Amino acid sequence: MGNCFVCMPLINQFMEIYNEIEKEVKNILGGQWKCAKADDTRRPGMVTEKIVCALLNTDLVIAVVADPREANTINPNVMYELG
After folding, report:
1. What is each CA distance from 81 to 29, 30, 73, in whole angstroms?
2. pLDDT at 71
């Protein structure tokens, strides 16, 4: 089974994009693949620590860097995760 971490702005407008990414990952790489994003796990601790842990334990990273809220600028949180 493979893991895919999706770096993206965590806003409602992007849930449809995330669902499409998840569907395509499973179609292309197989139904055993799981997708996750930064806000999927609700556990105590620093957010940055959880993101780093997720990134270190994933097989594939997909980043959606555009943010529709500010004239399609780059989202700084996504760039932090990607960096």
Report:
1. 23, 25, 16
2. 66
Q: What is the DSSP string of 1-32?
A: --EEEEE---SGGGHHHHHHHHHHHHHHH-TT
Q: Which residues of the chain have pLDDT under 50?
A: none
pTM of the model: 0.82
What gap in Å lies between CA 52 and CA 49, rounded to an integer? Answer: 5
- What is the CB-side half-sphere exposure of residue 13 using CA atoms within 13 A? 8
Q: What pLDDT score does 70 carry?
A: 63
> CA 74 to CA 22: how far, in whole Å?
22
Task: Measure the CA–CA gap between 25 and 35, rounded to whole angstroms.
Answer: 8
DSSP at 68: G
